[in-house]
């Protein structure tokens, strides 16, 4: 592929997928260790009704409105999960499952019956992502990266996701120490002055942010792969939380880059006449990494006694 | 900060609970417990399963909500005295598969000193290592916590509390499922803390060691059954009252 093709057609989806993957992997590590990965699934699904409702209320599909809608939906769903848990005595997993599927379904109905689908949201993109359409038509090659006029026509999702990824990574770094302590031992954390409830809410908010990012890239259904697979794979490779997190970011980026490239280039290279979904490739690769690591990776603490 | 010219005498009470009541749903787990833990004392909280021992500690520390009552430490509401309190939860309350080394866990006890972004100074690193050494765990500093035995896990937890240099150490079942060497190491450290004037409160299960280990007891069965020096309070009749229902229930009529 020449630069004239690569830069406008492949580079933007590649970068966007990578940013989304990084934004997801960082909080995903803590969700994994808290055994709350399903919370990520919940957040990725409630993003949809949030975005649709925000669009219907404001008539705007700007990133800020989208983000506000998604975060509001995340907060509403967190309250709903708690309310269902209290009202029915259901376990948190069941309350979560009820909440996010119901809200997601409502979002799909809302999308189908409203004018939102006419603009840029449609059900298929919401489900499977939208990577291939995020192209940069004004780019002519690598020099375009330094051309202000061409840069101005970058897909708006790119700066939006860059901002989200930067926010999530910075917040994770800033909250690193209390998050690690509260994840390991929440009761102890509360006694040393860590506001554990606020911290849990912050982690939920970061997860919602990451889910918004991933929603734009790989869609609601595959977001959970970005949140879960890289941290779970990294967990199998190391017993150090900093190393686990660093590895998860590297694995996330690798899956995003290789997945995007493979989706567009692998089938033609094999002589096939079609391409496959980049989101599907990324998620499949993430799962493959996990499977390979589980099968052939190092066994952790081999001398460890069973508890 | 300048020294207070007229320092108040050190309060004689490390922890005081007044009318503490805690509920789980409709059921009262702890009911109207009033108890005093003198500074420099070492108290065992004793009672049958479900007596509310752990619940009492958690409510006193503000980890779970109380229905009624008050907990004060060193004359202040507990929430304002937390910097002087170290809490050692039940070992089984955490996931030991967490990716961390022993020294990482101990250094968690230094969070008040380091805060969000503060760095571990050499002095703080030494403090963490010294805490481990006091429990005979210096060699295991870089060991994965998942590879520890139950007794070693408990020692790591206590080392974390030592690193906090607290005046009041509250432990939930520190001897549950530990080996004899660990039990001896822990009790030596706790007695050492007491001799420094610090206060120990521990949920304890083994009635055979109460007299040897503790100078005070609080007998609990949802309500306070008896409270006072071990010699006068840890007697057959009061212990029978604390355990009474459960002992009888275990025997066919």
Report the radius of gyration of chain B as a whole number of Å: 19 Å
How much of the sequence lies in strands of chain A comes to under 5%
> What is the 3D form of chain B?
globular
Oligomeric status of the shown chains?
heterodimer
Structural class of chain A: mainly alpha
What is the helix/strand order of chain A? Answer: HHHHHHHHHHHHH
Give the name of the CATH architecture of chain A: Orthogonal Bundle
Q: Record the strand order, biggest sheet of chain B.
A: 6-7-8-3-9-10
As a percent range, the share of helical residues of chain A equals over 70%
Radius of gyration of chain A: 20 Å
- Largest protein-protein interface: A-B, 30 and 35 residues
Architecture overview:
The complex is a heterodimer of chains A (307) and B (253). With 307 residues, chain A is mainly alpha-helical. Chain A has a single domain, classed as ABC transporter involved in vitamin B12 uptake, BtuC, CATH 1.10.3470.10. Helix content of chain A is 78%, strand content 0%. Chain A is globular. Chain A starts with a helix and ends in an 11-residue tail after the last helix. By secondary structure, chain B is α/β, with parallel strands linked by helices. In chain B, strands 6-7-8-3-9-10 form a six-stranded mixed beta sheet, with helices on both faces. A four-stranded antiparallel beta sheet of chain B has the order 2-1-4-5. In chain B, a hairpin with a 2-residue loop joins strand 4 and strand 5. In chain B, helix 3 packs parallel to helix 6 and helix 6 runs parallel beside helix 7. The termini of chain B are far apart.
